[in-house]
Sequence to fold (158 residues):
Amino acid sequence: MEFDLLVKMQPSRKKPNPGDVFVVQPKNGLYFYGKVIKTNMPSKDLVILCNLIYIYKNPSQQVVMPTELNPRELLIPPLIINNQGWIKGYFKTIGSMPVTNEDLAVNFGFKDFLTKQFVDELGNPLGYEPELWTDYGLGSYGVVADKIHKILKEDQNL
Fold:
């Protein structure tokens, strides 16, 4: 699978924390906000601890800390990722805001193609098809880049 890349910003040795707000830059001068919802998630199926993140619809042409991020306005389904986006400089943390009950109430899940079931971020069966979903597995900044670039190709208004 070939990915369109993100623009590299500042590498960070700081691990993400719940509530961290970060930006990704799919092309120069275009930023999308992200928020870390959970970190250090153990999983019975994935070998390392991982993070649950949201990426939001509202793009910006400059890096400014938003006053709010609406979990009903996600650009892509929530993703399970490692820390490589921060370590390599493709995700830049710009501040923090609390993870809200509204953040935690988003109806999302993941499709486990081995079991053919929808699961939560820990790999537990949901028993229903969630409103938002993507493949179950550990991703990195490349998966984020690929999903954002697909949206940008489809929606010329972003």
Notes: The radius of gyration is 15 Å. The longest strand covers residues 30-41.
